[in-house]
């Protein structure tokens, strides 16, 4: 039975790479339709936390409830098919197939009868349509990121995890990505968890902030709460 | 832009041109050379089946002889013990034997191993098949099964007599051209694209909701089925199925074809198989020289032409086009793989 209050609930989550303890007793939640920013410096554990949710890399202990069910032991591909979709930091566009085919690969993660059509995708991302027949290796960084997000969306996920979606992109492209994410939020019934270091981008795209530092969740609250304590930025985000 | 129709036409043309060249070969060559050409045609598809795994899904098999031998022995047994079974039935049973061997061993190997460990497991399974053949009286033990007849295919209104070596040669080259192009079509279908995606990035493909292990097993079974089909087609041509075709050296052959021709190109194993056949013929009178020549050539190719012979030739062509300013300015590594 799906929960109507919490889509993702993480409790006492610990993640390890070999003997290295990366994520320590993490606990947070994401509600249906909510957009949450996961902020932290380089090496704070954002990517490891996201991969832990998919069981894709680190050894994971603790409880991950998704859509009302404990997903411990559920393989990565099955988690994707249940609606938990990760768009990784390095985009990973397949270079030798077309943009259209790259996006179509996302259909394997579709929940029954829920997938978007390519037409829907082109409506959400008008910039992609002219690139449809272009090979993956012929895209710029910003175009690759759009295609990666579009591919993640095709299967109509319930929670889309975006790992640093604007890293390395030009400011104008970052603004464009923020507009696209806003449009996705308005038109699609899904929640977002966005790992970011770019504060203004994260602020533009999310309702709430989870702050991570050296593998521990050190803050979980609204942007107003976050802004009310300038020390948070100083302690956990300043380089 | 990727023009798939143009690409399909070009590859169909390659298959047809290859078929025509093999078809006119008996007009200029003696029967010994024609026999060798028939084996080369079989080896081309055997190499392509191996490369479906290696360049397709990213699995290294050191045991492809088990599929080839499985198909060959199944065909030999059917031909000798069930002579009333139609020839197509024998081919089907032969291909299915390879598919079943691949399903059983692939299921075990893919659950337990990847990378080099997977390769070593396939070698071990292949040796197991070899030992079973040499210890089984029903399969002729070390002597193998001999006197396998070539078929007469009855089509109802007419029949096709393949009992002569030349007639069977023509059957081989047509069958191999059809299977080769079917394999190209598969690799360029949505399922083939997915398999390539798994090779390029298995983790990412799992993120996209794909059961990577099931698709790897599917590719393994398909590869084993095609390799076994090659063995089944070869047996009536050679009229013998001996345990040597299950030996580990046969497993190295498709690897050599692929490395010589170029693993990154669909037709690379075909080029390698033809080159391998030519060296084998040129050195046939000198025992051991064939292996030495192939070994030296392989060393040279790996050191000087890491993309294989086909990769080298295509990179030269691209370089020449760039000099004349008529080529597309795309990164070479990607351009090669896109063909």
UniProtKB/TrEMBL annotation, chain B:
A Pfam family that the UniProt record links to this protein: BPD_transp_2
Keyword annotations: Cell membrane, Membrane, Transmembrane, Transmembrane helix
Cellular compartments annotated: Cell membrane
Coiled-coil stretches noted in the UniProt entry, renumbered to this chain: none
Source organism (scientific name): Zhengella mangrovi
GO molecular function: branched-chain amino acid transmembrane transporter activity
PANTHER family per the UniProt record, alphabetical: ABC TRANSPORTER ATP-BINDING PROTEIN (PTHR30482:SF17), HIGH-AFFINITY BRANCHED-CHAIN AMINO ACID TRANSPORT SYSTEM PERMEASE (PTHR30482)
Cleavable signal peptide: none
Keyword Transmembrane helix: yes
Transmembrane segments: 12-29, 35-53, 65-82, 88-108, 115-133, 167-186, 217-235, 255-282, 294-314
Chief location category: membrane
Topology relative to the membrane: Multi-pass membrane protein
Membrane found in the keyword field: yes
Xref: InterPro entries: ABC_transp_permease (IPR001851), LivM-like (IPR043428)
GO-annotated cellular components: plasma membrane
Protein name per Swiss-Prot or TrEMBL: Branched-chain amino acid ABC transporter permease
